[in-house]
Amino acid sequence: MTTELIHEGARVPRGTDELTELAARLRLAVGRLNRRIRIDGHESIPPLQLSALVTVENYGPLRLSELARREAVTAPTMSRVLTALYEQGLVERAADPQDARGVLVTLSAEGRRRIDEVRSARTALVARRLHRLDAEQRAALAAAMPALEALLVDDE
User: Fewer CB near the last or first residue (10 Å), C or N of the chain?
Assistant: First the structure.
């Protein structure tokens, strides 16, 4: 099937409906912006470790198995991630009061500080990119924010 270039490498088949075209362009733009933010941020915490920290922040305290499920990784992979986070003082381990054999993971004060640091740095990076846009483009993005945020809601 012949394809046509839509925008910076987002290819969709000819005759594709507008919704699919928009989805391709949005996927590409969001993905590349996210990648730029990660690359330009020079964070000292690898992506999976950072993701695990944020998940513990949002849903903790968590057992290793639940954290692995939420991060879509295996338990051995999550065990290695948690060991690294624990060694850096970013998480704490405590006995699970419901199961004497279980361990619950919580965010430490240092873990919270590091998440805040990463968020601030990433926000500053995006703000610098937004500053390059003209007022009309920034207004268009502001108007689109409710729709973009609605995309974050999971399907029932």
Answer: C
